[in-house]
Here is the input.
Amino acid sequence: MKRKRIVSGMRPTGRLHLGHVHGALINWRSLQKDYKCFYFIADWHALTSEYEHPEIIKESTIDIIIDWITIGLNPEESVFFVQSSIKEHAELHLIFSMVTPLSWLERNPTYKEQLKEMAQKNLYTYGFLGYPVLQAADILMYKANGVPVGEDQSPHVELTREIARRFNHFYSNVFPLPETLLTPEAKILGIDRRKMSKGYDNAIFISDSKEIVNRQVANMITDPQRARRTDPGRPGFCNVFTFHELYTNKEMVKEIDESCRKASIGCVDCKKMMATNLNKALEPLREKRKKLEANIKIIENIIDEGNKKARKIAKDTMEEVREVVKI
Ligand code: SF4
Here is the structure.
């Protein structure tokens, strides 16, 4: 039986961190079992915010593919491709732009949030407002049945469905309506308790060395109410504890929970223990990464192969689109 398709992408604006791992990549890895997955480097999307400094986009593309493989995404099973290498995305974006009412884009909640979040950049551009239209083109090009996204991105999938509906209504039933596959929420935050982000300088990256990880963990903000060593802590309010839940064995997590509440463990020791366990988990990934970095040609071949597969589907979709649009 033909496997259902899913499509998802990442903006190449730097190396990937643990927020990406727990917020997307672990889920992407497990989806490979049940779906035909199309994972792409969203470099045109990156350009909407990085247009003044586009160098980061190219640099990050290879890095991100290496991170994907390091985490266990399999290019033999899934299609990895680069958005800008499949020019059909631009054409479909243009056609969708004709049928998408401006009000749909202006009321998009993530648009407003991102304008605020990235206030240091001038994002009042035509391209940035139209970001979800390009996303719709990325998804519908492959006639995806589902899109794995976090809660914050679900309005974009809804918008994709609206665009598909409108297109199908005007022309012909070309596009399926993709489902939102909500990614289980990533609980980990950055070291300052804000969302983990390169832009906030609060991230722990997959490729970070042991020394950097130790330093970042030492700087982590813990339970804000635990001001003194003798104050009982609240593990539920502590980001270090959330990391323990992911990287420390169950019995030890239970012990830390109790010791923290009784103030019989200090935050410095608790952090050291967590950093040790986190480094233990990251060590094999660092090794795997190093080997991949030494074979960039293999990564480039993976991208070429993925682009070929994606291009073939995109070509077919666009032939169908042009025919029904009669242009
Ligand atoms: S002891 Fe550990 S879990 Fe408790 S507040 Fe300190 S760092 Fe967090």
